[in-house]
From TrEMBL:
UniProt cross-references to Gene3D superfamilies, sorted A to Z: AhpD-like
Entry-linked InterPro entries: AhpD-like
Organism: Dictyobacter formicarum
Lineage, uppermost ranks: Bacteria, Bacillati, Chloroflexota, Ktedonobacteria, Ktedonobacterales
Protein name as catalogued: Carboxymuconolactone decarboxylase-like domain-containing protein
Length: 80
């Protein structure tokens, strides 16, 4: 459980709603960190831009990206 409550996915701007819906389709629910980021749309867009940039740069293999995400989640006490 997040220390900060996330947004209600039904009450966000259309771009954020589309991202959260895509996450729900892929993983069964929106990612908790994105629900928190969505409290501030500019932060949400910045975080999404970072991950898009990392993904499209081709500098970090997708499998390594997944491992890094899980390691950071574990370090932060996230039940990924």
């Amino acid at each position: 459980m997040a220390r900060i409550d996330g947004v209600n996915p039904e009450e966000v701007e259309s771009y954020i709603k589309k991202v959260l819906e895509a996450q729900a389709k892929t993983w069964g629910a929106p990612l908790l960190n994105h629900l928190v980021y969505a409290r501030r749309p500019s932060i949400f867009r910045g975080a999404r831009a970072m991950w898009t940039g990392i993904s499209t740069s081709g500098l970090i293999d997708e499998k390594l990206q997944a491992l890094v995400n899980r390691r950071v989640a574990a370090l932060n006490g996230c039940e990924f």
